[in-house]
Amino acid sequence: MAYSWGTVYKGERLEEATRRIVKKETGLEVDLIKHVGYIEYLNEKRFGRDTHSISLIFEAVPKGGELNHDNNATELKYFKELPNDLIEEQREFIKTLNFS
């Protein structure tokens, strides 16, 4: 499971934005399998003000490209267990997916 963050541009379909953002942040081209849910961040601070943002979560499989990272991350890796510093909303969402 991996998270990529980005913005949907005006006129861009959600699926197109998702593939674009994943490619930019991971180097991978992906096929989107299905939308699996969303995460709400109710008490975020962005640009000095309170915000409410929503992340849409898709299941995807790589179909090409080479795994690497952009300047948003220092490394990419797989985890057998959830990292301790995971954002709480993300941790709770992942638990609902029942990965084992």
UniProtKB/TrEMBL annotation:
Residues 6-91 form the Nudix hydrolase domain. InterPro entries: NUDIX_hydrolase-like_dom_sf, NUDIX_hydrolase_dom. Transmembrane segments: none annotated. It comes from the Bacteria. This is Nudix hydrolase domain-containing protein.
